[in-house]
Each structure stands twice: as C-alpha cells, then as structure tokens.
C-alpha cells in the first residue's frame, strides 16, 4: 500500500437562520376599525390578495358626498354654458351690456374649475374606499396578525408582515479563523464590489437531514472588503448570508 498525495475538498458546516428575501410590512393607508381578517397566519398568500378589511361605511359615505358635489358642479357648469351661449349674440347686437357677458364667461370658467376639483375629490374618495381592503404587496408567507378584529388602526399601524420565500436568505456567523483561512485559500478573484470565497456553492441541510435540491452561493459584501484592510476594525464573528432556493443564486452579507 502506497500513500498518494492529492487535494481533497474540505467541508464546513454552520447553523443558519432562514429569513425572507423580502419582509414586507403590511400597513393600512386609511384609518378605521378592522372588521375582517381574510388569511390564515403562516399560510402562503399572493400579491394583491386581501388580508384585512377596514369598515368601509365612512368611506362609502364620503364617496357619495363627493359624487353629489360633482353633480352639483356639473349642473352649475351647464347653466353657465347656456348663459354664455344665449348672451353672446345679444351682446353683439348691443341688446345687453358687454360687462354682463364678461361676468358670465368668468362664471363659466369658475364652474369648469369646480368640476375638475370635484372630479379629483371623487377619485380620492374611490381610492380611500378601495384601500379599506388591505392587500399583500408580494407573494410569500403571511406572519402573525398584530391586530384583532375591532381594533382601530391608522397609517402607522403594522397589521402583519409577508416574507418572500423564493429566493430565501440563510444567515450564519463565521469565525475569524475561518475567515482568514478562506481568504488565504480562496482562488476567487476580487471584484470592485464583492469577494467570492468558500467555493461557488453551498448546500442547505434541513432539520430532517435532507439536502435542499437547490444550491446557494455566498458572497461577502463590499463593507467587509473595506474593513478587512484594518484587522482592528473587522467585526467577528462575521455575519454572512446565503441565498437559497434561488431563482437568483447570489448571496450577500448582512449589512451592519
């Protein structure tokens, strides 16, 4: 038996904490009382899915009032238009004073401005009514509801959060020794923005021992590259992050 010298791969394992690639806080855009929760905590929700409903009755009343104001402004505009059309030939025939026609023209312009203003008020009232249905901004897993039915909420209230799970981030700390060895042994080339190390990919081992079918990559962000110039300012253990299961197999370090 003869010993043969050859390179063998060296593996390391870290305990990681999974985190959504995007963790979107769900907040209402109008104030009111929560009357309904339309999702189950921990379930998968889709972008645009209604998660909570706010009492719409005050906003429906505001919309009806805005529509009434618009109808009144349109009626006034119609009257002003008829006045101008009727008195224009009379003014040319010197049957009425020019000042009367001038006043009617200005009244018509004011009525037109009132109609535009009331149209904007109707659009805002329609938006407010639509916003009583609080929807998810992304596809992902919906978290625990932070409010209950009957709670009064406003624009600063956090109702829940939705975490995007594809891709997903895995945070894990590495020691100073592991970082130094990786920097010495890594054959990756430093770029302007990142340093590639620990090879090209990582496997995610689940709690039951199975390996997740997609592999992730690990990148150290530029802030570590800059801090690495001074050993005294480099934080240890270094927080690193891996992205799996990736449509975008790129991982970056967690910012400080």
Sum up the structure in keywords.
256 residues, alpha+beta, OB fold (Dihydrolipoamide Acetyltransferase, E2P), Helix Hairpins, 5-stranded antiparallel β-sheet, 4 helices, disordered C terminus
What number of domains?
Answer: 3
What do the pLDDT scores average to? 79
Task: Please work out how many helical segments DSSP would assign.
Answer: 4
- Principal-axes geometry comes out as elongated
Q: How much of the sequence is in beta strands?
A: 15-25%
Q: Please write the string of helix (H) and strand (E) elements.
A: EEEEEHHEEEEEHEEHE
Global Rg: 32 Å
Low-confidence spans: 187-196, 221-256
Number of strands: 13
Helix content range: 25-40%
Largest sheet, if any?
5 strands, antiparallel
The N- to C-terminal Cα distance equals: 53 Å
Biggest sheet strand line-up? 1-10-13-12-11
Q: What is the SS-derived class?
A: alpha+beta
Give a verbal description of the structure.
By secondary structure, this protein is of the alpha+beta class. It folds into three domains: 22-55 and 134-163, OB fold (Dihydrolipoamide Acetyltransferase, E2P), CATH 2.40.50.100; 57-130, Helix hairpin bin (Helix Hairpins, Orthogonal Bundle); 168-244, no CATH class. 33% of the residues lie in helices and 21% in strands. A five-stranded antiparallel β-sheet has the order 1-10-13-12-11. Strands 2-9-7-4 form a four-stranded antiparallel β-sheet, with no helix packed on it. Strands 6-5-3-8 form a four-stranded antiparallel β-sheet, with no helix packed on it. Residues 187-196 and 221-256 have low confidence and may be disordered.
